[in-house]
Design a protein that fits this description.
CATH topology of the largest domain: TIM Barrel
Shape: globular
Strand order of the largest sheet: 1-2-3-4-5-6-7-8
CATH class of the largest domain: Alpha Beta
Number of domains: 2
Distance between the termini: 24 Å
Radius of gyration: 20 Å
Structural class: alpha/beta
Helix content: 40-55%
Order of helices and strands: EHEHEHEHEHEHHEHEHHEEH
Strand content: 5-15%
Number of helices: 11
Length: 319
């Protein structure tokens, strides 16, 4: 389990095509609200022919925000770039110049055993070259993971390699739409991805492989308007959290407050977490009813939950 609030604070990750020419102004004017992180995507959302143009727009956007930060006060999200390959990371860092200061890191799509080593080398080089750290968030969405005959070897092979840069991995992310696409699935706004068994089983395997050592973030929710979109998101967030996911990918600002609220901590959970982590020295038994006398607190088996609860309270607040 991660031992710093840094890894729990990505929250709602808002995806935006990198060629959106209004994104910097929207952030500066507070139009997107607060309490979110931002992913500027150069991969699936950009036509192959227009990647160079999208890169230029992205660089201009970050340079605009870098300058604006010194002249006005506004909420600055953690900003990540979703790249197409490792070479693009190196190129962008060089071209961003001083605007590198406001870049938090990179999102790595479709991580697999064929590209992981090149990404690791690039991440290590970037962090040796520049004074500020650059974090990454790899996405588990490669079709190679679907094959049950190879899945375990792939997941644990990736985990073994990623140990070299473990402290620089903010989250492990899952590609819900990419994995659904492989099967031809698409959920409606009253259906949870956790009910799509082939995909949910793969999510479970990812949590099993990575969840004890990393924060694993939940899949994208693509509905943001129309009757029932918010109820569907709330239900999937409830299932996300129960399944071990923290945070979620979103595609519209309207979704951000729902994600943030889903991970706030109840006063009862916070009180129990503090009690579990500070048992009285005179206690002969390390199990007791909680303050409300509604459930049992067991001091040796609930400690990981309690520590995570304190990190979530710091990152998301208390209800």
């Amino acid at each position: 389990m991660k031992n710093a609030v840094l890894y729990y604070g990505v929250g709602a990750l808002l995806y935006c095509p990198a060629n959106n020419q209004n994104i910097a102004t929207s952030i500066q004017n507070g139009q997107l609200g607060a309490g979110y992180s931002l992913a500027l995507c150069l991969e699936d959302t950009i036509n192959d022919r227009y990647v160079p143009q999208a890169e230029e727009i992205l660089i201009q956007s970050l340079q605009h925000l870098f300058r604006a930060r010194h002249t006005s006060s506004f909420f600055m999200p953690k900003i990540f770039i979703r790249v197409r390959n490792a070479a693009q990371m190196t190129s962008l860092l060089n071209r961003l110049a001083e605007a590198r200061e406001i870049l938090f890191g990179f999102i790595i799509p479709k991580l697999d055993l064929n590209n992981v080593d090149e990404y690791i080398r690039t991440v290590l080089l970037a962090n040796d070259t520049y004074t500020k750290p650059f974090y990454i968030m790899p996405i588990m969405e490669s079709r190679s993971m679907i094959d049950l005959r190879n899945r375990t070897a792939i997941l644990y092979g990736l985990k073994e390699r990623l140990q070299k840069i473990e402290s620089l991995i903010l989250n492990i992310r899952v590609g819900g739409n990419d994995l659904c696409h492989a099967f031809g699935f698409r959920r409606h706004n009253d259906e949870s991805i956790h009910s799509i068994r082939p995909v949910a089983n793969l999510f479970s395997d990812i949590i099993t492989a990575f969840g004890m050592d990393y924060v694993v973030s939940g899949p994208v929710w693509e509905y943001y308007n129309g009757e029932g979109w918010d109820a569907g998101l709330k239900q999937e967030l409830k299932e996300d959290r129960l399944s071990g996911f923290i945070g979620k990918t979103v595609i519209h600002p309207k979704q951000i407050p729902l994600v943030q609220k889903a991970y706030t901590v109840t006063p009862e959970d916070l009180a129990d977490a503090k009690a579990i982590l500070t048992p009285a020295d005179h206690m002969a038994s390390l199990v007791s009813g909680n303050v409300q006398k509604q459930r049992m607190n067991e001091y040796k088996t609930h400690t990981n939950w309690a520590r995570q609860t304190l990190y979530l309270a710091e990152a998301y607040g208390v209800q």
